[in-house]
Amino acid sequence: MESVAFAIGVAGLTGAFTACIDCFEYIQLGRQFGQDYGKCLLKLDAAKVRMSRWGAAMGLDPEPHLKQSISASDEELRLAQSLLEQILDSFKDAERISERFKKYTSVQGSASTGLAVYDANTDLVSDYQRLHLTMSGLAKQRQKQTSVRKKFTWAIYEKKSFDRLIEDVTGLVHDLVDLFPAAQEDQKALCKAEVSAIEETRDLALLNDIACKDDKILAAEVKREINSRGYVITDWKAGGNSKMWAGDENAPGVDSKGYNFARFIVSESADEHLGNVNRG
Fold first, then answer.
1. How far is CA 115 from the centre of its chain?
2. Distance between CA atoms of 226 and 219, rounded to whole angstroms?
3. Dihedral angle at the C-alpha atoms of 74, 76, 77, 82, nearest 10 degrees?
4. Is the separation of the CB atoms in 184 and 60 below 8 Å?
5. Cα–Cα distance for residue pair 89/32, rounded to 1 Å
6. Distance (Å, rounded) from C-alpha 276 to C-alpha 182?
């Protein structure tokens, strides 16, 4: 009976979970974000992927290879429902703030510039675009049971509103992850697949910089994957009397990490050393 009760409880969470995942689809970011646009969009992507990972491990949007044998009490399921509803409230609050901003901007007569939004298809630099497409693809692969109905979109125009939303959502998802420790092993397996799907090592480094402080499971997998691949250093220029060393100095017995170098330009009297130095 316990497994049946859990199945019924999880089924009750599905609607709230679906609504939360859909909320990520509706957000655009205003042009006032400027140079922060790319990083903010990737933070949004990372939050969505993390939440979809938790949902898949919980059986809300199951993946075929997961056993879905997690047990939970009625109280834990009630807490999960409350956390999901709080995530929805966070999106609603951000949308209300944006609506007030739109009205104020329209009254001021600057709607044509103040309300302009970015387009992820055309306004991202190549590294950010590549990682954005990968992260979006990972989340969509898990949306078999979500509605993904494309209703009207809405925009966040002020970075402080975005930062508040991301802080609230990531904190609540963190609470969801902690609430069901038995699901974390499946989340680690899913995260490993996510990280492996990111082909460019420099994209892993970018993801690490943007999202890993908010996601311990992701941080561990990114670190493991980068260490297994080695390091990639590209697009450096050296000239004049400059001196540069790109590599590690390893103590005796320390494993040496590999480096991949590409597109280096050395001119004049520059003195460059590429690679590791192993002592002992």
1. 26
2. 11
3. 130
4. no
5. 24
6. 42
Residue 190, both tokens: 């899913």
pLDDT at 3: 40
Residues with Cβ within 8 Å of residue 64, at least 6 apart in sequence? none
DSSP states of the chain: -HHHHHHHHHHHHHHHHHHHHHHHHTEEEBGGGGGGHHHHHHHHHHHHHHHHHHHHHHTSS--TT--------HHHHHHHHHHHHHHHHHHHHHHHHHHHHHHHHHHHT-HHHHT-B--TTTSS-HHHHHHHHHHHHHHHHT-TTS-------EEE--HHHHHHHHHHHHHHHHHHHHH-GGGHHHHHHHHHHHHHT---HHHHHHHHHHHGGG-HHHHHHHHHHHHHH-EEEEEEEE-TT-EEEES-EEPTTPPPPPEEEEEEEE-TT-EEEES-EE--
- Residue 94: partners with Cβ closer than 8 Å, 6 or more residues away: 156, 161, 162, 164, 165
Question: Do the Cβ atoms of 204 and 233 come closer than 8 Å?
Answer: no
Give pLDDT, residue 264. Answer: 65
pLDDT of residue 262: 59
Sign for the pseudo-dihedral over CA of 203, 205, 210, 213 = positive
Mean pLDDT by 10 residues, the chain (280 residues): 43 86 94 95 97 92 56 89 97 95 78 82 93 94 61 88 97 97 94 95 91 94 87 69 70 62 68 66
pLDDT reported for residue 233? 67
Note the Cα 46 to chain centre separation in Å.
1
CA angle 101, 104, 105 (to 5 degrees): 85
Distance separating alpha carbons of residues 236 and 238, to the nearest angstrom:
7
Rounded to two decimals, what is the model's pTM? 0.79
Residue 250, pLDDT score: 66
